[in-house]
Amino acid sequence: MHLADARARAERLDTDDPIGHARSRFALPPGVVYLDGNSLGALPAHVPDVVSDVVRNQWGHGLVGSWNEHAWWDAPERVGALVAPLIGAASDEVVVADSTSVNLFKVLVAAARLRPQRRVLVVEPTNFPSDLYIVAAVAELLGLDVRQAEPRAVDGVLDDDVAAVCFSHVDFQSGRVHDMRTVTHAAHGAGALMVWDLCHSAGVLEIELDACGVDFAVGCGYKYLNGGPGAPAYVMASRRHLDVMRQPIPGWTGHARPFDMEPGFERAPGIASLRAGTPPIVSLLTMEAALGAYDGVEMRAVRAKSLSLTRLFLELADVVLHPLGFEVATPRADEERGSQVALRHPDAYGVVQALIARRVIGDFRAPNVVRLGFAPLYVRHVDVVTAVEQAAAVVEAGEHRDPAYDQRVTVT
Ligand SMILES: *Cc1c(COP(=O)(O)O)cnc(C)c1O
Predict the structure, then answer these.
(1) pLDDT the model gives residue 2
(2) In what order do the strands lie in the sheet with 120-123?
(3) Is the pTM of this model over 0.90?
(4) CA of 129 to the centre of ligand 1 (A)
């Protein structure tokens, strides 16, 4: 297929796109194809005014009274309730707090404490580094063992010694989706609890935590949810556990009566017990506003658009990029693919940098992956064609071999 034909087809797909209007909710720099919403989501256009109001009015004028006046105190649960429908949880099962890494620590310890006779945690070897480090740290702290297994092969490591299984719903590197329902049922069949990391699936896939019986879940606010740099994360606990779980960081904001300033800890009822310290109000309210970008948008339509974008990319990559030395590392089957495409290339770092110079922004993941994320709210089919065109141009001109790219920047 010629790229000119592809562009005409992409334009038709964009014209017929039922969520095409959502792009105008974002303030994207002109001329940029942004394929890194899986690392830092784009800025929704209405957010700067909200942030300005939070800082100038709520903080500047309202001062400490804004904790009551602007309901800052309840914001972690309120924003959690906005995330809940995006991940198939009830509004009282999600709270926004801390980072994904910290929340994972909290729920893994809570899960292990709910299975006190069991001595094993399970994790997949390709999980995100933080997840691997935290599983290992929790195991060390509680004297547990770690077993590794691919989610598809979890049955092979399950027995009545497994306390909890912790997998990422979508692999951060390859973009493979794991079958949440089947894996969760397998864990439960062995009496273990199931913890999912939703960092690369929330906001782009239809997720049904409650319908799948998931025990705990965590995820970032700053990726596809567009909460802004360093946005707080969210943590979900099933209603079954809300009043019995005990997380290991008993801060005063998770106390039943925080302003009684009691010397002894008594956990707050419900999801609030997963709070620890004072919430980052400016970030949290930024994220609250940003979630408005999902207003009235069906996750079914988001997922359909995401698959359409990645399908088109893969089709063009086979014709145009494969002959230039790119290998697709992302599953081909729609049901196995998240919202990103990973391409292996021997000079992946140089390719990513040269693409950025051409205003196509993706990222590099060691050792050799060009990672391109397709955020369906603002990426168009024509952007897919541009990205393929530009990647081909980079390699054809040898721009990826520029010695300037011998030295890596801090954040790749
Ligand atoms: C991005 C990401 C994280 C990041 O955790 P933070 O604590 O927010 O830095 C964790 N896990 C996965 C799977 C991720 O993709």
Answers:
(1) 77
(2) 94-96, 234-237, 216-219, 193-197, 162-168, 120-123, 145-148
(3) yes
(4) 8
